[in-house]
Design a protein that fits this description.
alpha/beta, Rossmann fold, 7-stranded parallel beta sheet, 6-stranded antiparallel beta sheet, about 40% helix, binds guanosine-5'-diphosphate, binds magnesium ion
Length: about 425
Amino acid sequence: MKRDTADAAHAARVAAIRAGDRMAIARALSAVENELPDAARLLADLEPSTGRAHVVGVTGAPGAGKSTLISALLRECTRRGRRVAVVAVDPSSPITGGSVLGDRVRMGDSAAVENVFVRSIASRGHSGGLAKATSRMVDVVDAAGFDVVIVETVGAGQSEVDIAAIADTSVVVCPPGLGDDVQAIKAGILEIADILVVSKADSPQAGETTRDLADMLKLKRATGGWKVPVLPTVAPRDEGVAALVDACDRHAQEVGRGRRTRAPDATDTPAAQLARRFIERDGFVRHCRLELVEAGRAEGHATVAVTIRPEHVNFNGGCHGGLMFTLADTAFGLAANLAGFVAVGIDTHMAFHVGLREGDRLTARAYPVARGKRVATWRVDLTRGDGRMVATFSGTVFVTRQAHGGVEGLEDEDAGVEHAPRG
Ligand SMILES: Nc1nc2c(ncn2[C@@H]2O[C@H](COP(=O)(O)OP(=O)(O)O)[C@@H](O)[C@H]2O)c(=O)[nH]1
Ligand SMILES: [Mg+2]
């Protein structure tokens, strides 16, 4: 009886989200963001309704003008009668529905208000990873029937969210006057951009930046049939914004929607390829049957997992602590080395919280917490399949010399690999 009531309440929640009930959406987003116990079931039941929204990633350095541009996009999209949700991973300059819609709120345009949903996501404290939390929050608003989902993230190289894996269309925002920095952004950002926006086109240097970016694109090999446009905008005045929405529409027609629902993204990035090469050279990691889940080079993060097998069980019938340390240490070693340095471990600490048994799945996710000139510290969260925190690990490395930095590391067969995962 009690179970029937709970099931009915759950079904009602799912129906309410699908129907676009704002309160139900907000609650579901909280459940997913905070990894509450009911989140997995909710996502499973919403899954058949996902993959319909056009997911647009808007990325760029802090201050590039992303939030301002997104406000203008919301105005343009609602003008076109579309329902738009925003998931902002950069809450430094929050967007609120009210400030975006301005006059229309004051004039009581309730349709416009109903058609916009904005949510920020805290960029720390997601044991399963920020990228996964972001992707799942996109799933919720997608299932709720929003036509467009905009995801705001800080630029490639500064965020652990691989926006290109989540978004159907990646818009990279470049403010004018980058000068030599254009070279610096080239590698990471141009690779992922489907559309380049030169923001703040009311600035005198905007023309030069637009030309620099267009020149750089000429050098880039054309991928498929899509030609990356460079579009100047003055978002506070809504200039260039209609052209941007048109370009997004054309791109969606070209590549389709729902990329994140089919992408084998996390295991196919250059970072993951490099991490797999490290693992291939590590007999002990192979012996323990550790699997790579995802890896990123920007700040240096890595997730590895293992299923507890009979040979991993200790004399008390639990999981051997050595396996847990090995898993944590491997995530740590990969993360530190992927950050672009040959890093030598100098200190580690591990705290155990709950036990594990044969058959359990154990996942270790390493992410950086402090970075000095010579030393850097990573934290590793170890979680069980049900999401419980099993143990935490922290490790400090001494940064010896720069190596396997940049994607060239992949071409350079031996760059630093003799030191990996950790010297
Ligand atoms: N002059 C000018 N300023 C802009 C424009 N777009 C954004 N800004 C300003 O740039 C600053 C950073 O914008 P914001 O959208 O918060 O950047 P974000 O950190 O990338 O989200 C703010 O002070 C904006 O008012 C523009 O087109 N022209
Ligand atoms: Mg912002």
